[in-house]
Amino acid sequence: MPKKTRMRLINLVDTVSQLNYGIWNTITSDAEAFRIRGIDSELWFPAADFSNESITTVPLASVSVSTIDQQIKVRGLNASNDIIISHGCWHFPTRWGNAFRKKNFKWVALPHGMLDPWAMKQKAVKKLIYYNLFEKRMLSQAHVLRAVSHPESERLNVLFPGKNVQFIGNGVEVIDNIPAKSNHKRTYLFMSRLHHKKNIIPLLEAWSASTLNNQQNVELKVAGPDQGELAAMSTLINNSENISYVGTVYGEEKKQLLRKAHFYVLPSFSEGLPTSLLEGMSYGLVPIISDGCNLPQVFASNIGINSGTEVSSIRSALESSLAWTDDQIRIIG
Questions:
Q1: Which residues of the chain have pLDDT under 50?
Q2: Does domain 7-167 have CATH number 3.40.50.2000?
Q3: pLDDT tens across 257-301, in order?
Q4: Residues 159 and 264: beta-carbon distance below 8 Å
Q5: What is the C-alpha separation between 75 and 67, in angstroms, rounded?
Q6: b/e per residue 191-229 (b: at least 16 CB within 10 A)
Q7: Are the CB atoms for 277 and 291 separated by under 8 Å?
Q8: Cβ neighbourhood burial of 38 (10 Å; 0-12, 13-18, 19+)
Q9: What does DSSP say about strands 263-266 and 186-191: parallel, antiparallel, or unpaired?
Q10: Residue 4's pLDDT is what?
Q11: C-alpha triplet 106, 19, 310: angle, nearest 5°
């Protein structure tokens, strides 16, 4: 009897830069779980110097749809066995997903929050034209539209009525035996890319205007790659005695930050479902987040604080966290 060919998940991403870490890291983190269940994963991306031991990487010399037949042949893809998964909107993954769909492959599309109202208002005219002419038409052909949060699921059902929308949240490693947090100094951690939509400048302004600023028993640590905000952050950081920027962190350095921190702060305007938030919660951090983080369960379950997105609301959220006792933080975490 011939050996059964293993199913493959072909993940299409528009970039594997660190600025897109949240998306491709979720893919690579899930690869091992799929592998032990008899399913292999591949990560396809425009040619770049990138490798990852958790997943088969396939750099693409061209992202023209005219090269798909060649890739099918080279990679030995089988429409009856392999599934195409496109990540994000506006770039080649949607076009390729749609092209693979026409070749009878099953296609799952993940917008990752890129069709949320705030995101759609950025470069609004360009997006509105492209969405109505191309993106919506192509995405409507996907066999499954996967939402990574409940709010995104509701949004996709409105945008694509009658289509197969499935909510499957992102996951992170479950951390056992979380070490006790220090009772001498409370650490607030912002760990995300320094981009306008993450609302980092209003966070620093709120901290600077709050009673937490310059207090020896609290500190705000900011970690993440810069995407245009670091220059504007510098003055605020330099004028505070308890705000520090630690740069981009990975591996053990990142784990140490998470082990020591008490609160995870992300007053973002818009997200899919931020992996860094889930990682923070897995390490016992209490979330201080906005509705834009797409995790309403935090507020429904009273296990975090709603920061809003304005300086005044962020300041109020930070100051209200001072009332949390060490036991509350330990129990919630």
A1: 1-2
A2: yes
A3: 999 999 999 999 999 888 899 999 999 999 999 999 999 999 999
A4: no
A5: 12
A6: bbbbbebbbbebbbebbbebebbeeeebbbbbbbbbbeb
A7: no
A8: exposed
A9: parallel
A10: 59
A11: 105
- The residue behind tokens 């070749």 is 103
Of 313, 216, 217, 298, which is closest to residue 264 (Cα–Cα)?
298
pTM value surpassing 0.85: yes
- Residue ranges covered by each domain of the chain: 7-167, 186-332
Task: Report the C-alpha gap between 94 and 83 in whole angstroms.
Answer: 14
Residue with tokens 């496109």: 86
Tell me, what's the pLDDT at 174? 77
**Cβ atoms 285, 185 nearer than 8 A:** no
Distance CA 333, CA 80 (A): 44
Residues 6+ apart with CB under 8 A from 42: 8, 9, 10, 11, 55, 56, 57, 58, 75
Contact between residue 67 and residue 44 where contact means Cβ atoms under 8 Å apart: no
Domain spanning 186-332: which CATH class is it, in words? Answer: alpha beta
Q: What is the pLDDT of residue 1?
A: 40
Domains 7-167 and 186-332 share a fold: yes
Residue that is written with structure tokens 């983080």 in the block: 293
| Total residue length of the chain | 333
* Residue among 18, 8, 1, 4 at smallest CA distance from 191: 18
User: Any idea which residue has 């834009």 for tokens?
Assistant: 292
